[in-house]
Amino acid sequence: MFCSNCGYKNRETAHYCIDCGQPVDRITRMHKKGKRNKVQAIFLSLLLIGAGFSAARLTDEQTVQPMSLEAENTTQSLTQQPEAEAAPPQTESAKEKKDIIQETRHKVFTIESDEVSGTGFLFTDSGILITNAHVVSGNSDLLVRSADGEEESGRVIGISVVDDVALVQVDAYAGNTPIEVESNQTEVGTEVIAFGSPSGFENSASIGYVTGEGRDFEHNFIYKDMYQIDAQLAPGSSGGPLVDAATGKVIAINSIQYTDGISIGFSIPMHTVEDLLTDWLNNPMSQEEIEQILDQPSESEWSRRN
Length: 306
Hints:
- The chain is α+β, with helices and mostly antiparallel strands and 306 residues long.
- The chain has helices at residues 24-64, 69-79, 89-104, 133-136, 270-282, 287-294; strands at 108-112, 117-122, 128-131, 141-145, 151-159, 166-169, 191-196, 204-219, 221-229, 241-244, 250-259, 263-269.
- It folds into two domains: 1-76; 99-301, Thrombin, subunit H, CATH 2.40.10.
- It is built from six helices and twelve strands.
- A hairpin with a 5-residue loop joins strand 4 (141-145) and strand 5 (151-159).
């Protein structure tokens, strides 16, 4: 064993250097301890560099990536931010649509006659419903059923031979709050909810968008400035309300479904029949006028429609 003091080579079992007399074991231990301290210092430096690199990397990632839920919660805890925050807009929108559907469906009714089944919705607090003329044409006595399954009798008090619109009086619904109506035109791209009883599935709601406007055509009635929608309609949807998914207001009356490989729905805008409806309310049609119209061909004798 070489002496670290003088370099003399001693025996392996020597405790002291024969040349200089220094304790060999003590010098060796000090030498080894010095090496350990050096290694530890190097290792600690590597750890600090690694920590610095990780911190720099995390900083870079935070500038381009959103924080995860765990990281966000940790940051809130460290900065002592309030625990409760406003819900994201998507959650708020979903809750609003749910509330609109729940509220509106109790103001939408299934209308049945001997041959036809359709839909109507509460228009006034005196118990007057709006529906399509082709739903009630040929029938003076109607069965009206609520979302709760309760049945009441209804009678036609207004009907047009030009516009596919009719009013039905249900005395049992007097005093109930009607659905609010939107009198202004609705823009293409507006999210909507179509209510009705498609294919017999009563009080259904279908979400979609207004995909077109100004559609004009004639089929037993004159349809002008119709809204085109992609919300699902089917026979039985006729007369149901088309509701703005943001405001809950009725913007149109679901009336016709076009099917030719694809299915397209069309609804009568409320602003196009507002004057007619107001005139019926202020100047009710006579019973004779209504009966003359009701005596015209019923739905089963007309071409296919909702």
